[in-house]
Write the structure tokens for this entry.
Amino acid sequence: IIGDVDLGNGDNDIDLYYSSIAGNVTAGSGDDDLYMYESSIIGDVDLGNGTNDIDLDYSTITGNVTAGIGDDDLDMYESSITGNVDLGGGANYIEMDYSSITGNVTAGSGDDDLDMFESSITGNVDLGEGANYIDMTDSTITGDIIVGGGDDILIIDPSLIDGSVYLGNGYNQLSLIDSTITGDVTGGTGVDDVYLDNSSIGGNVSLG
């Protein structure tokens, strides 16, 4: 398809197998599903408000990915996104296996999960307010990690954060196992736990 795709409001399904779209993909309010297998989109993807599901297998998106208010899932396997990812408010879940995002990753208020296995993010990660969970295994984030108020858990084993970590307010837990943070670690008001096992923090540690 050469041109924009606008599906409007409602519960929309987009399935791409060995296919390509050269244009923007837009869906309005509703529960939308985007599945891609060995496919590509060159353009922005905006699924609007609702419970949206984006599943990429061996696929690429060259453009920004946006989902509005709602509980959104982004699953990536041997895939890449070159652009910013903004999943909006809600309990959002991002799973990356052997995948990459070149751009900032943002989620609004809500309990968000980010799971990375042998994957990379080149950009800042801001999960906003809520009880957020980040689990990195053999992965790299080149940028800052920001979590707002809420009880947050970060497990880095073994991985690299080439930037700073801002834990915000709440009861936060940061565990580093065979891992490195090159920048600062900052916590707000609340009780913070920092555990290091054969790991290093290159900047200042201020837990508030």
Notes: The radius of gyration is 17 Å. The mean pLDDT is 94. Residues 116 and 136 are 5 Å apart (CA to CA).
